[in-house]
Design goal:
This protein is mostly helical and about 160 residues long. The chain has six helices and no strands.
């Protein structure tokens, strides 16, 4: 609509440009958009204590910080595992990789699973998958060669 008004303004000359830009439809349009935006977006207070029944952003902030800390930890653990392989590194990798995967899949569930029952089922499945993954990696570390040695053996092929 604005492009059409500007096109009309260019074709009609200087006086037409002023009338097209100050026309009734263009003057009224922002007020209509503001009214629609006011109805569609709930008002929220950005300052002050959280209201009863609403979660605090402090917990979400701490969770986000923890996710980033595990990601940065993994960036350091991977080269350290190559340089200093051993049982402590194997179990550290098992814990960090499981936690990183758990949080990542949790975000997929948050984004793509809707409805109370499907969300509960998906979260239950995620906890089971994470527990089985961690138990499997610990079993592999204890009864087999461990994560570091296994990756080194794969690289030597």
């Amino acid at each position: 609509m604005a492009a059409l008004a500007l096109l009309r303004a260019g074709l009609a000359g200087p006086r037409g440009a002023q009338m097209a830009l100050l026309g009734r439809n263009l003057r009224r349009r922002p007020a209509v958009l503001a009214a629609v935006a006011d109805r569609s977006a709930p008002a929220r207070q950005s300052h002050g204590p959280p209201q009863q029944g609403h979660g605090s952003s402090k917990a979400a902030s701490l969770h986000w910080t923890g996710e980033r800390a595990v990601s940065v930890l993994l960036l350091g653990l991977l080269p350290a595992a190559y340089l200093y392989p051993g049982p402590a590194m194997d179990y550290s990798l098992a814990a960090a990789l499981t936690l990183h995967g758990h949080w990542g899949l949790g975000q997929v569930i948050t984004d793509y699973v809707h409805g109370d029952t499907p969300i509960k089922l998906a979260n239950t499945g995620l906890y089971v998958l994470s527990a089985v993954t961690f138990a499997g990696l610990c079993y592999f570390n204890y009864y087999d060669v461990g994560i570091c040695k296994a990756v080194a053996m794969l690289w030597s092929l």
